[in-house]
Amino acid sequence: MPVYELSCRQGAGGQIMERDGFISYSHRRDMELAQALQRGLHTLARPWTRRPVLSVFRDTTSLSANHDLWSSILTELERSRYFIYLASPEAAASRWVRKEIEFWLANRPLDRFLIAVSDGTVAWDVENNDFDWERTDALPPVLRGRFATEPLWVDLVKVREQRLLSLRQADFRDAVATLAAPLHGRTKDELDSRDIRERQVAKRLRRTAVGALAVLLVTSLAAGVVAWQQRGEALYRARVSASQALAAHSLELADSDPRKAAQFALYAEQVESTGESAQALARAVEANSGVVRHVKGGFEKLADFHGQSQVAQTHVAVSRDGGIFAHYSDLEEGDVHLYDIRTGRDLPDLPTGMIGRNSEPLLLSRDGRTLALEAAFNRIEIWDVRKTVKVRTITASRGEDLAQAWKGLRSFTLSADGRRVAASYYASDEPSATPRLGVWDTRTGKSLLQEAAPAKDAVYSLQDDGTHLLAVDTEARTTRLLDLRTGTWARARTVSGLPAVDAPAVSFSGDPRRAWIASDGKQRRGGLWDFVTGKRVTESADGPTGVTALPADNPDLVVGAEGNSLVLYDGALRRTRTLGAFTWGVLGVSVSGDGRWVAAGSADGAVSLYSTRAVHGGTPLPHPDPVDDVRFTPDGRLAYRSDEKTTQLWKVGEGDTGLTRLGRIPRPVDVQDGAIALSPDATRIALLDVGRLTFWDPRTGAEAAEPAYTSRSTDGPGLFYLPGGRYVVGTWWQGITVIDTHSGEATQTLTEDGSYLSLAQSGDRGTLASVDEAVGDIGVWRWSAKENRFEHVRDAHAAGTSTMQLAVSVSHGGEKVATVDRDSRITIVDVRTGRTVSSAVGPGQGGHPLVFSRDTRLLVQPYGAGERGGLDLWDTATGDALGSWDLSGQGVPGTDLSVDIVEAPGGGLLTRGQDGSLVRRALGGAEWRATLCALVADPLPDADRDRYLSDLDVDAPCDA
Q1: Eight-state DSSP code of residue 694
Q2: Using CA atoms, how far apart are residues 549 and 544, in angstroms rounded to an integer?
Q3: Residue 823 binned pLDDT confidence (cut-offs 50, 70, 90)
């Protein structure tokens, strides 16, 4: 039977007058989630000096002792203003839940029926205006056909699975605010603002208390000290609250406006570094993964714009060689802005004035030196980009004499060499008038062709050298080719299957070879066409739904808009990944010839430049040899590849230097029973093979003069060089043992037996940690260069009921140690204090390694396999999960390659993609902050600053 959470108001004399809400859910499945939701509704936006606005009864003890339980439930339902249903398959199957919902449907308004999904699926079918009952399993059938419009629901699946059940967690805070808003009679933003305001009121009240206590400082210095502490605590809490609110808003914006998400994440980190701000930074870096530069932010207000069609147009163009990027917006003062992609610098603007809106009005030549644009009244302007000079104006017709403003250029095309331009246009207001077709020489302005267009809505494309013009008439399903050297048209060619519509959406790839053609004006289905062969290459209902761009020299890529998002497709029109997103719809898209550079602009004037080769917050590292099957040592300093007889070796450089080939040795590395390590000076290789330790010169491949060390066997693969390079440490049957490479003798044994198998070394080589896999005991030692031996510094024990520990990791400076057990519970030990925190039981990633950020603030662990995967993030101070960093489609290694995720020399995370690429990814607040500041250095808008930071003194995060 479900449990009910009831909130109420009381009248005079304590009489219950009205309930704020009635929450019904599965007691067996959602008890913890329901309790957390109660606490969140109780706490959010509560005035500091008052009792909770919503009085919440948590369980059945709030009901009457009446033996007729259903009568008591009906009484509470009748007094409730809102019904909150925690949806799950278990709740949907509950008889009690169904009866409660049936009562509400019969007696109360549906606009006060709120849904919070804790498990299962809830999907809305837009076409049938009802839930999609083939996919929905979390709602009872009694709700079929009862809603006239899509009801409000929030998704709590992630917060329940990851146990993110605190208002400090951005996702849970957002869900509670969404549900609490109608109960409070406010919008979510108003409620969020009120919560911040109440916290700030608390800060001011505390500040007043500090002032009062300061008066008593003369008689009680101790009271003054306490007051100062309270003031500091109040200020700290206010900053934490503001940081959490900013981080929550950043996470909310990540999918719809990555630029603003980055701004809010940066300010959240600037106000106060919290787990939430780190999560927001990571998500913002992910959301901006393909961004080269946010060239221009969107205009906040569009209400004052009254242009043609009441839509503010934004146009973009990228030269085919990927050198120049041009953009224009109706919301600005009539200039075309230029950006040099190669140097990353803005170029002088072109003072063009208002440009046309009836065709693709900005066209760049292949080399970006010539810009052709549609000006007002059927005029074409030719600009020299380098000199920022208008070369000439070509008048197609006297457009100012046309009564209908929409009769501008119908189709507009520039040859790749920039020497010829063609356009179709109206020259008469007669209803039966046929558009005219003109071709001009851009160097002289001379007209090369003036005649009636072959079709009313034909679309044209000039070949690269400008000698031929292709006309595509989808109404007649034909193509015709005009030889501009002779002025003669070839015979019309019928193209079978070409969509027959009056105003097709056609996007050429820069020459007549390939084009995207939508089947109707809404572009709900389209295909790629090759007009050399006259055949459709592919067709898909899953292709772009908005404006589209095709790279001229890359037939395997299509870039298209889907509402507010910019999406990449392969040559078969299969969606591969989302490149970016905007607050408003995408109106303009352009791409370089090789498909690397993509520009897009939205209806609010926002413009961004993307790279399809970018990775999430990372840098592809150079490597002279194929590395698609190499492995890395746990310290990330050595890459190697073994066959049956030899091992090839590479040194991993710091920063972005990539791999340097060291040579090879005539011995294989057994990843199960052996290990390999590189000396600090990179002149020696230590090789452990079934209990025998030998040393090799990687340059010659010969065994070095250092004496070998032999033990009966080895019980683990751990092997590391210690500072100075004279000693190595590894795991043998007798325990963790230190070996002197000069004498070949064991100088120290750290453990009494070989039960400590998992071994890890800090990045500075000074700290060693190991875990007894059988019982979960953790040992930590530090190397003394003066004594040439390890000193024991800490013992700890892994948390949880599972004693099988699968991995251990040490932070770069040895400050913290982490282990993970077979239940995927992570234990984090502060080496200095001995404080231990643990995470919740995870989703089964126990076998994957753990890597600390350089500042020890975060711990990451890979998840997934194949093309789907990423990184889970954890707060090392609390053990709280901070969400996931999705790296799908970016070459994240699969499960079988998890050994390849290691701390990179010099900081960051080293990963090897399945495509053979080697990537160093930024890891940690400082690196993520630098990445985002390079993309979005603008300060927060005044309205947002006043809302979140009105009483706080906060510098702009990117000023330095």
Answers
A1: E
A2: 10
A3: confident
Structure tokens at 563: 């509402």
Same topology, domains 629-751 and 755-923? Answer is yes
Q: Which CATH class is domain 629-751?
A: mainly beta
Nearest to 586 by CA among 568, 570, 569, 565: 565
Phi-psi region of 868 (alpha: psi -120 to 50; beta: other; left: phi over 0): beta
Report whether 103 contacts 85 (CB < 8 A): no
Cα distance between residue 79 and residue 805, in whole Å: 53
- The share of the chain scoring above pLDDT 70, in percent, equals 82
Average pLDDT score over the chain: 82
The token pair at 200 is 């700030």
**pLDDT per residue as tens digits for the range 878-910:** 998 888 777 665 444 333 333 457 888 888 888
3-class DSSP state of 409: coil
* pLDDT for residue 59 is more than 50: no
Cα distance between residue 818 and residue 827, in whole Å: 5
3 state SS of 591 = strand
Give the whole-angstrom CA distance, residue 244 versus residue 596. Answer: 37
Q: Which amino acid does the sequence have at 789? A: R
What mean pLDDT is predicted for residues 298-308? 54
Between these two residues, 357 and 37, which has the higher pLDDT value? 37
Strands 493-494 and 478-483: antiparallel
The CA-based angle 82-86-89, given to 5 degrees, is 140
**Amino acid occupying residue 944:** D
CA pair distance 806, 817, nearest whole angstrom? 14
- Residue 677 to residue 695: CA distance in whole angstroms: 10
CA distances from 580 to 261, 302, 419, 554, 868 (A): 12, 22, 34, 20, 19
Spatial separation of the C-alpha atoms in residues 578 and 458, rounded to whole Å: 32
Instruction: Record the tokens describing residue 201, joined without a space.
Output: 């009121």
* Beta partners for residue 277, in sequence order: none
Q: Give the start-to-end residue ranges of the domains of the chain.
A: 3-186, 190-288+938-949, 629-751, 755-923
Looking only at the bridges linking them, the beta strands covering 902-903 and 881-886 are: unpaired
Q: Which one is predicted more confidently, 630 or 768?
A: 768
Which residue, among 897, 918, 901, 917, has the nearest Cα to 909 in the 3D structure?
901
Higher pLDDT, 100 or 801: 100
CA–CA distance, 916 with 924 (Å, rounded to integer): 25
Q: And the tokens for 158?
A: 């992630």
Structure token digits, residue 696 = 């090799």
Residue 444: pLDDT band (50, 70, 90) is: very high
Is the model's pLDDT at 448 over the cut of 90?
yes
- Return the CATH number of the domain spanning residue range 755-923: 2.130.10.10
Q: pLDDT band at residue 24, thresholds of 50, 70 and 90?
A: confident
Q: H/E element holding 308? A: none
Q: Count how many Cα atoms sit within 13 Å of the Cα of residue 870 in the half-sphere of its side chain.
A: 15
Least confident of 616-625, 791-800, 884-893: 884-893
Taking alpha carbons only, the member of 912, 935, 930, 958 closest to residue 854 is 930
pLDDT score of 63: 46
Give the DSSP letter string of 54-89: SEEE-SGGGS---S-HHHHHHHHHHHBS-EEEEE-H
Residue 431 in this model has a pLDDT that exceeds 50: yes
237's torsion region: left (phi>0), alpha (psi -120 to 50) or beta?
Answer: alpha
* pLDDT given for residue 51 in this prediction: 57
Q: How many residues make up the chain in this entry?
A: 960
CATH number, domain 3-186, options 3.30.360, 3.40.50, 3.30.760, 3.90.1150: 3.40.50
Report the Cα 173 to chain-centroid distance in Å: 20
Q: What is the pLDDT of residues 378-400, one digit of tens each?
A: 899 999 999 999 999 999 988 77
Our CA angle for 270, 168, 937, nearest 5°, is 25
Question: Which residues are 481's β-sheet partners?
Answer: 470
